[in-house]
Every structure is written in C-alpha cells, then in structure tokens.
Amino acid sequence: SLKSVIAGCGSYLPEKIITNDDLSRIVDTTDEWIRERTGIRERRVAADGQYTSDLAVEAARRALDDAGLKPADIDLVIVATTTPDLTFPATAAIVQAKLGVEQGAAFDIQAVCTGFVYALATGDRFVASGLHKRALIIGAETFSRILDWSDRATCVLFGDGAGAFVLEGVEESETDGRGIMSAYLRSDGRLVDLLYVDGGVSSTQTAGHVRMQGNKVFREAVTRISEAMETVAARAGVAPTDIDWFVPHQANERIIQGVVKKLDLRPDQVISTIAGQGNTSAASIPLAYRQGVEDGRIKRGDLVMIEAMGGGLTWGAALLRA
Ligand code: ACO
C-alpha cells in the first residue's frame, strides 16, 4: 500500500514589513500590548497587485525545488485559503496555470486557520489511495485585504504569506516510516459568531472584514487543540510527549504555550514564527515547518505534530514523520 511522504517544502513572505510601532500610528495600541498579549512584533503584507496566488506560486516553486521535481510531476494542487484571488475559479486553478501544471486536478479548501490541516489530510487521502501521484498542498493568504484597519482588536494580529508541501505516494515498504501518519479534523458551526467575515457573495456582495470575539476564541483554543493532538497521537499509537517537533498554527504565543503546558511538551520543541509573521491563517503551519527544516531543527525521520484552530470553529491536528 501507498503512503504520502513529504518530498519537499517551501515558503514565501512578501517583502513589506509592518511593525507594532507602525500600527500604533494607525490605531490606539502599543508595541508592548501586542507583544505581551500575542508574542507578535511585526508582520508581512503583500504589495498592491500581489495576490494570494502569487504568494502561493512562489512557495510552491520553492517546495518543488526542494523536492527536485518539476510542475510536470504534479497532478494535484490543493490551496487552503480564506482570501482567494477571485470568487471563482479556485485559487488552486490559478496557481496551477501560473506554475505550468497541465495535468491532474486543482481545488481550494476553506477552513480558515485550520485550512492547511484540512488540505494536508485531504491531499493525503488522494495520494495514499493512488488516485493522484504527487500533490502540492499549499496554504496561502492575504489576510491584510479582509482586515478592518480601524479595529485594533483584530488588525494587529494577522499577516500575509504562503507555504507549501509536496506529497508523494510511496510504497510503504520503501518509506522508512516517513509520511503522514494520522489526521483528525473537527468543526462546530454553532460557533460561527466567535470568528467570521461580515461579507460574502451570497449575503452582501462585498468581501467584508474579520470580526472576532478574541477572548472567547482564546478560551476555546487550548482545550480543543489539546484534544485534537491527543486523539491524533492515539490513532498513530504514540503519546504527544513522543514527538520531536511541535509545529502549531501561529495565532497567539500564549495559546501555544498553554498547549505545551497542558500536554507536557518542552518549550524547546516548539517551532514558533509568530514574532516576525503574526497569524498568517492557513499559511502559518507550512511557513513554520519550512523554518524548522531550513534551520536544521526538523530532520528526516523526525516525528512532527501540527495543529490549528480557526473560524467555523474548525480545528484539527496531524502527525507525520518528516
Ligand atoms: N491594543 C491595545 N488594547 C487592545 C488591543 C490592542 N491592539 N486590542 C484589544 N485591546 C483592549 C480591549 O479593547 C480590551 O479593553 P477593555 O478591557 O477596556 O475592554 C482589553 O484590551 C482586553 O481585551 P481582550 O480581548 O479581553 O484581550 P485578550 O487578553 O483576550 O487578548 C487577543 C486579545 C490577543 C485577541 C486574544 O484574545 C487572542 O489571541 N484570541 C485568540 C485569537 C485566535 O486564536 N484566533 C483564532 C485563529 S484566527 C482565524 O481562524 C482567522
């Protein structure tokens, strides 16, 4: 039987930096408040005319290079995004064309900040079943475009960016145990009001802005994320403390540390990028994962846990061997 192995990864951040001090000139906030409550120091913002697909394509090219593969080797493109270029077609179709992938299928997944976990779990099923050979799993966002820049409670939290994995179907006997081991996805639509965008095609015909009851989301986070991690670990027959690296969605440093404490992990097992990037929604996990690979922390064969929670509410976790 086949297993989906991570053949490569890549990420991309737009050049423009917005610091906390920059924000303190737009809204009533301070560098100190933002750092203490969230761990964020600065975030990147896409340039005018630079779309989610552009960030996605850059991350995907780097992932393909890392895997030593070409666009012609890819037969599935999944983009997790909440900030698509257009209402349709899927950003994945635009990315497919810009990359020069001419075969296979392309579609988007919308699970907000949990998007990458959903996309990876979905791509894994397509690849491990043999339906598709090699998939690009991309998380890409231009959250700056749906922020209300007069709302200090939300505009300080988010940033733009993209990250990508290449998943390849490999005979299990040849994987050395590498690949996606298990995934666990959840949602509870009764909690829509905690975090949503107040616009859309069918309702207002506008793109809308992010609305969030931050402290209520915060209170839900640690418990739900920890449950997902315990479940996904149990499915793979390991304990959360067996992992080498914890690559969480980067929403708030305090949430991450809460999970670390609850599950008895060590702070030095966490790959954290929040200080320089803020919350990049579906892009944050592959951005952090790439950081860990690049600086030599995540090595071939390491046991890695990813998790996220976001609008919906949606949440989930996945366990993999790098
Ligand atoms: N600067 C200064 N003061 C602020 C700011 C700011 N940027 N933002 C809010 N405040 C004020 C509030 O107005 C409030 O003032 P008040 O007491 O006078 O009313 C005070 O700070 C405390 O506000 P809280 O919202 O209770 O602050 P909290 O400690 O909860 O921190 C935060 C807010 C950082 C948003 C936190 O709740 C959080 O991180 N929540 C989770 C976010 C998250 O994980 N989202 C999910 C992923 S995102 C996605 O899926 C799209």
From TrEMBL:
Swiss-Prot/TrEMBL catalytic activity: malonyl-[ACP] + acetyl-CoA + H(+) = 3-oxobutanoyl-[ACP] + CO2 + CoA
Active-site residues annotated for this sequence: C113, H249, N279
Pathway given in the UniProt record: Lipid metabolism; fatty acid biosynthesis
Keywords: Acyltransferase, Cytoplasm, Fatty acid biosynthesis, Fatty acid metabolism, Lipid biosynthesis, Lipid metabolism, Multifunctional enzyme, Transferase
SUPFAM superfamilies: Thiolase-like
A cellular component annotation (GO) from this entry: cytoplasm
Compartment(s) of residence: Cytoplasm
UniProt key word Cytoplasm: yes
InterPro entries with a match to the protein in the record: ACP_syn_III_C, ACP_syn_III_N, FabH, Thiolase-like
Location of the Beta-ketoacyl-[acyl-carrier-protein] synthase III C-terminal domain: 234-321
GO BP: fatty acid biosynthetic process; secondary metabolite biosynthetic process
Enzyme class: transferase
Record carries keyword Lipid metabolism: yes
PANTHER family named among the record's database cross-references: 3-OXOACYL-[ACYL-CARRIER-PROTEIN] SYNTHASE 3 (PTHR34069), BETA-KETOACYL-[ACYL-CARRIER-PROTEIN] SYNTHASE III (PTHR34069:SF2)
Membership in a protein family: Belongs to the thiolase-like superfamily. FabH family.
Subunit relationships: Homodimer.
Protein's recorded name: Beta-ketoacyl-[acyl-carrier-protein] synthase III
Species of provenance: Amphiplicatus metriothermophilus
